[in-house]
Amino acid sequence: MSPLLSLRGLSVRYPGSKASLAALDSIDLDIAPGERLAIIGESGSGKSTLALAIANLLPGNALVQGAVEWPGLGRKAENGRDIGFVFQDPSASLDPVMRVGDQIAEVARANLGVGWRAAQALAIQLLDRVRLPEPKLAAQAFPHQLSGGQKQRVAIAAAIVGKPRLLIADEATSALDTIVQAEIMALIGRLVTEEGMSLLFISHDIALASQIADRIAVFRHGRLVEIGPARQIVSNPTDSYTRLLLDAHLGIDPHLEIDAHLEIDA
Amino acid sequence: MSADLLSVSGLTKRFSRGGKAFAALDGVDFAIAPGETLALVGPSGSGKSTVARCILRLVEPDAGAIRFEGQDLLALSGAALRSMRARLQMVFQDPLAAFNPRATVARLINDPLRIHGLVPRAERPAAIAGLLERVGLSPDLATRHVHEISGGQRQRVAIARAIATKPRLIVLDEAVSALDVSVRAGVLRLLKALQDEDGLAYLFITHDLGVVRAVADRVAVMDAGRIVEQGEPAQIIGAPTSATAKALVSAAPRLLGGETKQTRE
Amino acid sequence: MSRLFLRSPEAVAGTIILALLVAMALAAPWLFPRDPLAIVGPAMLPPFQDWTLPLGTDRLGRDVLSGLFHGARTSLAVGLAAAATSIIVGVLVGTIAGFAGGWVDEVLMRITDAFQTVPGFLLALAFVSVAGPSLGVVVVAIALGAWTQPARITRAEVLSIRERDYVAGARVIGMHPAEIAFREVLPNALPPVLALSSVIVAAAVLTEAALSFLGLGDPNRVTWGGMIAEGRAVLRSAPFLSIVPGIALVLTVLGVYLLGEGAVEASAVKRGNA
């Protein structure tokens, strides 16, 4: 089966930064239809640049080499229709002075070519699917009336309204507390399965990623250092940096010793 | 009770939101012994940060008492309050927001030394260098601006600033949540080392049980402005009794924590 | 910063105009050592007739070019001094009001309101007529009407900065509130006020000209406003007497605006890149 998305020799450089430091350095990566791929990395790893490059959202001055191809589509991808994007901070991605139902309806109208009335009905339907209580009332709310987790649910609804083939979640849960994070993770997992979407899950947290991803790709300083099935990466990593990330994970499982964690050198 | 470094009782604070008053804190009681690490955990909006800000006198509680080193903290004001602050410090979540954007590293660490008159002016550069080395940074960083250093370095500078006045208690408000995981381990190790050397006590505010397990002597679980459960980390993580603690434990990310989690909601 | 600054054409034009004006002001006593109020030739000599008096003479036979140069001194000095005074007073009042809050804020802002309800020019006019025209009085008179805007902007900025973590951080280390206000908060509240400073300088230059036009400037100094007023009586027969200082005034205000515009743009680009 041909991959949905295929990156070949993708390099991204920002002018003004040191010539030796590419934000992304010759990345080769495939995402299969329906696959859940996690991109793991710390600040400066290039993981967010990767997401922006795939969604064609890089700033105009970025120097891009290599190819972003969509064999699974057979054409260039369009944001909204083919790619849904969920960002870290839902308050920044939602319009503060527009009712959330209207924001989702707007996306529906733009991407599905339906009328306003149908788009609004669809918005309410979607708010129900992302499990907002009382979706009809919620559609009338403004973003500031919702909690962080509820806003992220709205952002997810807006991301999937165009029935995209690929959902990109860029640190979509890192601004949330662990309880809400677990709920949003479960929601993303369920929607991806139901819609048959591919998922690009970008995170700094390898444990979180291991719960949702089929494959994990570890990035460092713009390079892909290791990629493999999630179980293999977690239980049997080959790269020393991957091992470092795993060791730095502070779990709550009682068989691991507290001091053992703190001996690990960064 | 007299052995406690800090004791908080009946702490209550109401805010009004949209014209309606709601209790951010609703009778919070806890105590911290010298040299102890108490973790305060809870979901966002549970009141953890309000507790921190009340203890630091950044927010005035509506009711309750806070005693620090046997002194009534809420009775202090003016110069007496300012001089007490040498012994009670805080590290914020986002060091970039917690530092004056125009400041250099040297100025940030110099400020507490100057204000509390701890080190004569001529000896301050050496003292600053010493503090930077203590938190594992090169003294060369002193001349840099805060936006010129990395997030991990910034948080170490924040720690150097906090320990400059030799405090007995440091409140850490989500102090490691924004750090990269590989950097976080080093900062936690530094905090532990400083505690062992100086007998510091920490009030460690977080929503991450993994961090709690790594650093805390005791845990207090907060929800909706109340403490719903207190105990040792192993006990609370292993056998939580309150609904909040149970939810926190089940939500904590685990490496390949079972396929059931991702589909359940 | 300076490279960015010089990349915008407005900034370059503004810099050139102001540099010329400053050069004029500085060179005035050296190029025209004689008192510009002294009579040097026949009255109402038109420009470009006599090359020792290139811009001609006024009703009393005084050198127009010399007046223009010496007038640049007054205009720039009064404009800058009045703008600086109003910005300093405004920033101080705004910082204290915003940082202290409570009744201090209430009192200071009601005083600001009171000053704002009276038109600034009327205030200046009243003040000069009571205190008598001299350079210092004119500066204070202009500042009296111009300090309210920087005060309001500073206060708004301080109100937002006051809630930031680094102010809490300064309190936590035991910093005195006065030091927090003036060392931590004020410098960070300045940029929007400084962005406004070109408008304030330009307005001050114009107010000074208007006061002089009405005969309320320092009588012992040549001013552009005074020159325009002088020429008004013979506007039909010798329009150049009003037009020449008028052009100088327009160029000054334009130069200040362009420079301010360029500076704001350059700092915005710099911030965008950071």
Task: Throw out a few tags for this protein.
heterotrimer, B: 265 residues, alpha/beta, Rossmann fold, 6-stranded mixed beta sheet, 4-stranded antiparallel beta sheet, 10 strands, 37% helix, globular, disordered C terminus, C: 274 residues, mainly alpha, MetI-like fold, elongated
Short description, anyone?
The complex is a heterotrimer of chains A (266), B (265) and C (274). Chain A is α/β, with parallel strands linked by helices.
Q: What does this protein look like?
A:
The complex is a heterotrimer of chains A (266), B (265) and C (274). Chain A is an alpha/beta fold. Chain A has a domain at 1-77 and 217-266: Rossmann fold (3-Layer(aba) Sandwich). Chain A has eleven helices and nine strands. Chain A has a six-stranded mixed sheet, with helices on both faces. The longest helix of chain A has 18 residues, at 178-195. The radius of gyration of chain A is 19 Å and the shape is globular. Chain B is an alpha/beta fold and 265 residues long. Chain B has a domain at 6-96 and 170-251: P-loop containing nucleotide triphosphate hydrolases (Rossmann fold, 3-Layer(aba) Sandwich), CATH 3.40.50. Helix content of chain B is 37%, strand content 25%. Chain B has helices at residues 48-55, 78-84, 95-98, 105-115, 124-134, 151-163, 181-198, 209-215, 233-238, 243-251, 260-263, and strands at 6-17, 20-32, 37-41, 63-68, 71-72, 88-91, 169-173, 201-206, 218-223, 226-231. A six-stranded mixed sheet of chain B has the order 6-7-8-3-9-10, with helices on both faces. A four-stranded antiparallel sheet of chain B has the order 2-1-4-5, covered by helices on one side. In chain B, strand 4 and strand 5 form a beta hairpin. In chain B, helix 4 packs parallel to helix 6. Chain B is globular, with a radius of gyration of 19 Å. Chain C has 274 residues and is an all-alpha fold. Chain C has one domain (2-35, 53-273): Orthogonal Bundle (MetI-like fold). Chain C contains eleven helices and no strands. Chain C has helices at 2-7, 9-31, 64-100, 102-117, 120-131, 135-146, 148-161, 165-172, 177-213, 224-232, 240-273. The longest helix of chain C has 37 residues, at 64-100. Classes of the chains: A alpha/beta (266), B alpha/beta (265), C mainly alpha (274). The A-B interface holds A 42-43, 131, 147-148, 176-183, 185-187, 189-190, 193, 204-208, 210-212, 230-231, 234-235, 244-254, 258, 261-262, 264-266 and B 43-45, 151, 180-186, 188-189, 192, 207-211, 213-215, 234, 237-238, 247-257, 261-265.
